[in-house]
Amino acid sequence: MSTGIPSERERQKPKLREEPLEKDINGTVNKSSAQWVIRVTYLITVVDQTCLFMQFGIVPYLATRLGLDAVGFGYLQTIFGVLQLLGGPIFGRFADKFGSRSALTLSYLAGSLCFLLLSVSSSIPLLFFSRLPSIFVHGLPGAQMVITDLTTPAKRADALGKIGLCFGMGIIIGSSLGGTLITTFGIQCPCYVALTGCLTCALMAFIMIPAQTKAPLKGNTPQQSLSQSSSVFSFKEIIRLMKLPGVMDIFLIKVLSLLPTGVFLIMFAIISIDFFGLEAAQAGYLMSYCGILQMVIQGLVLGRLTSRYTEQTLLMLSVVVSCGVGIAMVLMSSVFHYCLIVPFMVLSFSIVGVITDILLTKSVPASDTGAMLGISASITPLTRTLGPTIGGFLYRRFGVSSFGYLQLLVNMSLFLFILKKRIPQKEGKDQ
Predict the structure, then answer these.
(1) By percentage, how much of the chain surpasses pLDDT 70?
(2) Angle (nearest 5°) at CA 256 between 154 and 49
(3) Please, is 239 exposed, middle or buried when counting C-beta atoms within 10 Å of its C-beta (0-12, 13-18, 19+)?
(4) Where mainly located (predicted)?
(5) Contact by Cβ (8 Å): 187, 58
(6) Which of 44, 221, 226 shows the shortest CA–CA distance to 146?
(7) Is 256 exposed, middle or buried (0-12, 13-18, 19+ CB in 10 A)?
(8) HSE-up of 151 (CA within 13 Å, CB side)?
(9) Does the predicted model carry a pTM greater than 0.90?
(10) Which of 154, 259, 343, 371 is the most exposed place for a label (fewest CB within 10 A)?
């Protein structure tokens, strides 16, 4: 009878995503310990995103006070986007090699350094210099890595969707808090508050997140040994991951599907003033409306959709909804019309973002999910880097309707591409 017990444990071992927590949380391995770490990760992410959106409010005011013109501010934003773009894959490789706790701690310490440098920026060169640590600021992808490691593929969509809830809370709290602190106490105050917040996140991550959240690797396949022996800065390793079956197709879908909406959102500050005729306060209310919608859709709606429908069905739904959004944007003429369009825009944006991340993590070994999420996270800074040029050209030459035509054209092409490639090729693939 005693010989049957080890064999039963051996059969259950690969299914226990919480096993790495055994040495870190009360010496036990159970679902509650993993759920506790996930909840802590959500809490830290809310604080981190609040600090991040406080930064987005601080930098324009500080740049204006230092005499930086619109062109110079564009260069500042471009440098930030390029640093984030380069840092995403490196950050992911660092997480795979040294663990999610080390990666998150690095991210929050880098964020602290950013705010410290912002608080002492008394000249334009110092302001530009304060952007350099942002190459390691990747709190959101870091949280996604922890959740990916601690959840099964069946529950991953719902868990990752709730990251969007944290993101939305960060938008609302960070934007309003940053503006209030700047108005009441001056521009240095939010810098110090955000610095304290980032240091608190780093301390919480170091104490509460296990050193290694990945399940132990079984065996030593060539693919796994290559990943572990490669340097954090190895671009050959990144290219190897992109060449894995299905990865490039899914990555292409994510880039193209998010690009039209991303370009429009980058230009929204100008569109809200020139096209809708909104004042700064009204534009802020509209952004809060978008943040609340994202919280509701990613926190409450997305999990239910992923539990009922397959990944391919949801991808197709996202593309079809985006086509409808494109048509509506062509016909849009008032802010009321935009408010009617936004829920569908956020729905399609959220679905494709979460589903493609899940498919990408399923397409690589468990040892490389961090690197894959880091590569995926680089899409946002890529859009932020290219978006102002593309969006400015479209808006000046063709007006707001051009964003709708771009949305429609890209998503119609993606619809045919997904049908032809039958993505995902393997439904429900487990790691």
Answers:
(1) 84
(2) 65
(3) exposed
(4) membrane
(5) yes
(6) 44
(7) middle
(8) 24
(9) no
(10) 154
303-346 pLDDT, tens digit per residue, is 788 888 888 888 889 999 999 999 999 999 888 999 999 999 99
The label of the residue with tokens 């990666």 reads 103
Backbone φ and ψ of 278, nearest 5°: -90, 150
7-26 pLDDT, tens per residue? 444 444 444 333 445 444 44
Report the alpha-carbon distance of residue 225 to residue 219 in Å, rounded: 10
What is the SS3 assignment for 146? helix
CA geometry: angle 322, 141, 178, nearest 5 deg = 85
- Are the beta carbons of 241 and 375 closer than 8 angstroms? yes
Amino acid in the structure at residue 361: T
Residue bearing tokens 């399923």: 362
DSSP annotation string for 197-219: HHHHHHHHHHHHS-S--SPPPPS
Q: What are phi and psi of 210, to 5 degrees?
A: -60, 150
Which residues of the chain are modeled with pLDDT < 50? 1-20, 22-30, 219-229, 427-431
Q: CA 210 to CA 20: how far, in whole Å?
A: 8
Distance (Å, rounded) from C-alpha 174 to C-alpha 401? 31
